[in-house]
């Protein structure tokens, strides 16, 4: 009898925790919700609802690998529970695994034949898979492709007399031009295609000449500012420049990947960063993030935004230029800056990263993939990635990598943090994220880090989100993805 009472009390305590988790979820406190659902699962591991709810919270934190695992577990517990398939299907969609998603939504429809929402989502998923098959069928083999960049001469693009926006006189991008362009962008005016071509093509030339790992030297008494993900939040980017000054030779910046997607001002962000690089290559350094890739841009809005604000040709052009972005930077031989994190094997030297042939779309495994996708974990060793790509690595992995390469610190980005940053692994690893109130709903601060030579101690500055015009995040994303967010 006492055992029965314990079981009942566990069940009712688990339900209380689920309710608390639901409240945390409603308040956009997704990490807290995950912790509470986990506690509920520890008390009652046979309730499919807890796993499906936790899967949804994981999805909100872009932890799609964990969401798929939880959706699968919910299905194992109750194969007739439609939410299990729904949550797993949504996570597959977010990863661009449309065929896997389609199977799950077919199952949802089978279980809920009269649910109009299930029918609508299945139709969207079928459309996405059909589109993918069509694109695969007409795709030209890589070996036969001609680069779009090689076919454009921006000098021949005519500027209409009625155009009143920023203009580049001749071939040199000046600070005056950049300031005028920023002003136009602030007022939601587009840059003429002629100047957009010029900026993107000139940036490509600068990036192509760089190695896959770039060494940055900050002279004594000088500084550099490292920023994390900006994700198309142009007005927050302007705020960074307001707080910390415009990029220049004396005020250089390193933006550590994920410049685009999700936020609906990604075109403005990328043209701003590229224009500063054209103006003065030593004023700005750019690392590739996992969102500087075709597969992500197709899903998370950048591709649609480029079509809307520029043209179809620019979609391919940006994709080509993103393949030229370096994968990592080392500042003064001491600070290793990479978008995602470390690797699935020990003994990776800086020379191995320098030797990566990066001029391609990111592969699904190997050093390049891991540099763009991996995340730190609190426990030692290595574990599977909560994202379903890359891996998780512990403090011991960080320590060994630093020792083997005679480095002091790793700075990475890739993850939203409540305070805009987090210091982990005994102070040897800092995550910096520069998109405050990410996606207009996370309520997080943004941060950037200033390093001053010669001591190179991180000075972290946090900031809050600023208002922006009423264009929602993901406004240009694929319709089917918006339906699931």
TrEMBL record:
Its main location: cytoplasm. Interacts with PHYA and PHYB, mostly when they are phosphorylated and in Pfr forms. It is found in: Cytoplasm; Endoplasmic reticulum membrane; Nucleus membrane; Nucleus speckle. One of its GO terms (molecular function) is protein serine/threonine phosphatase activity. PROSITE patterns: PIPLC_X_DOMAIN (PS50007), TPR (PS50005), TPR_REGION (PS50293). Keywords: Cytoplasm, Endoplasmic reticulum, Hydrolase, Manganese, Membrane, Metal-binding, Nucleus, Protein phosphatase, Repeat, TPR repeat, Transmembrane, Transmembrane helix. It is an enzyme of class 3 (hydrolase). Gene3D superfamilies: 3.60.21.10, Tetratricopeptide repeat domain. TPR repeats lie at residues 14-47, 48-81, 82-115. It is a multi-pass membrane protein. It comes from Anisodus tanguticus. Belongs to the PPP phosphatase family. PP-5 (PP-T) subfamily. InterPro entries: Calcineurin-like_PHP (IPR004843), Metallo-depent_PP-like (IPR029052), PP5_C (IPR041753), PPP_dom (IPR013235), PPP_phosphatase (IPR051134), Ser/Thr-sp_prot-phosphatase (IPR006186), TPR-like_helical_dom_sf (IPR011990), TPR_rpt (IPR019734). Transmembrane segments: none annotated. This is Serine/threonine-protein phosphatase 5. Its EC number is 3.1.3.16. The active site is at residue 291. It comes from the Eukaryota. It holds the Pfam family TPR_1. Residues 191-467 form the Serine/threonine specific protein phosphatases domain. Coiled coil: none annotated. One of its GO terms (cellular component) is nuclear speck. Its cofactor is Mn(2+). It catalyses: O-phospho-L-threonyl-[protein] + H2O = L-threonyl-[protein] + phosphate; O-phospho-L-seryl-[protein] + H2O = L-seryl-[protein] + phosphate.
